[in-house]
Structure formats: C-alpha cells, structure tokens
Amino acid sequence: MRIEWLGHACFALESGGWRIVIDPYQGVRGFRDVATTADQVFCSHGHFDHAYREGVALTPGGQSPFTVQTVASFHDGEGGALRGGNTIHIFSAGGLRAVHLGDLGHPLSPEQLAAIGPCDAVMIPVGGTYTIDARQAHAQLETLGARVVLPMHYRLGALGLENIGTLDDFLALCPPEAIRRYEGSALELTAETPAQIGVLTYQMT
User: What angle do CA 23, 122, 81 make, to 5 degrees?
Assistant: First the structure.
C-alpha cells in the first residue's frame, strides 16, 4: 500500500491500481489547494480544510481492493458540542490496515479502540486547538499500537494553520531513533515496514 501525504491532513492511498484521497482541503496557509485525481474520496467531516471534494476529479474504474470501515468520534472534547462529529476511516487492502483519524478531538474510548482494531499505520493529528495536541497524540499511540505513525494537521514554518502546534512539538516527545524523515511525500507500507514515526515531506512544486 502506497501512502502519500498531500499536505495538512490529506493523504492518498494506493493499492492494486486503485487510488483513494482522504480529507482534501482548500485555503490552508502555505499549501496549494488540493488538485488531484482518485477513484474514491473520503472526508472525516465537512470543514473547508477537510472536505474540498471539488479538488478531486473522480475517475472510477474496475474493482476496489480496499475495504473501508468507519468509527464515529468527535471533533472536540465536549461530545461534539463545539465542532460536531468526526469520522475515523479504516482502509484495508493486501492484508494491511491504515487508519486516518481525521480531526479527532478527544482520547479514544475503549469501545472506539476495539472498533478500530489492529492497524499497521495511523495518520494522526498532532497540532491541537482543533484536534488532540502533541501530548494527547503521543499518549494515544500506545493504545493504537500502529507500526507506522504519520503525524498530520500541524504547523511547519509557513505551512499549516497559524494557531495550531508545530511538528517539532510532537517529535520532541518521540524517541529520536524512532523518527524517520523522508525526502519525498510517500512511503510504501508493507508487512516488513519497520516501526517508525514517518515524517513525509510536502512537495512544494
């Protein structure tokens, strides 16, 4: 399974020639509005920085190798009273499971963790303000147990919402030897991919 970071909280997953885009955005400081193609698009919630479906040209064809499950959650720590609901997506293909937490705003309950189940990779927000913050995200990793952790929804210099935390805030909580920085924006997830905090690089051009 190929996992590509398209910026902010947007990822593209590919397996067997099928391409899925998750949480396409527009209007996020420093990032170009998403403009790409996919066979399917999924959004965790309806905010501008996660539901820019117009930026994804759908070109469906053939049979998807992905099985998609969802788990209901909230965009805040007040049961959705502040920002509403948030949908967690679990994508399974080729014996691998990748979880996109969307704008998760609270610690996952035992029931939600059981519904998510084992996962090989997790895309987790770390910036706070609108989501869980760096410390909450770090604490959540132990309960999720994913081999590959892909932080998202953070600020990095001129990239990202101005009032959220930085990537360094999160990485400072992680063992340095666990952090792997990629020159490109994608990684290949396999059964042999070693445990890591994967930092993908946004492609400016």
Answer: 55
